[in-house]
Amino acid sequence: MAVTVPVAVPIDVAPWRLSGVVYGTLLNHRSAVAALGAAVNAPPYQAPPRAPVLYVKPRNTLTPAGASVVIPAGVPEVEVGACLGLVIGRSACRVSEAQALEYLAGYLIVNDVSVPHLPYYRPSIRHKARDGFCPLGPRVTARAALADPDALTIRVHVDGELRQEASTAELVRPVARLLADVTEFMTLAPGDVLAVGAAAPAPRVRAGQRVSIEIDGLGVLTNTFAGAGS
Amino acid sequence: MMRARVAYAGTLHGAEPAQLADGRSGVRLADGRVLAEEEVVWLPPFEAGTIIALGLNYAAHARELALQAQEEPLVFLKGPGALLGHRGTTRRPAGVKFMHYECELAVVIGRSARSVRRGEALQHVAGYCIANDYAIRDYLENWYRPNLRAKNRDGATVLGPWLVDAADVPDPGNLGLRTFVNGRLTQQGNTRDLISDVPALIEYLSSFMTLAAGDVILTGTPEGVSNVEAGDEVACEIDGLGRLLNTLVGDDAFGIA
Question: Closest to A131 (Cβ–Cβ): which among B143, B148, B210?
Answer without folding.
Answer: B210
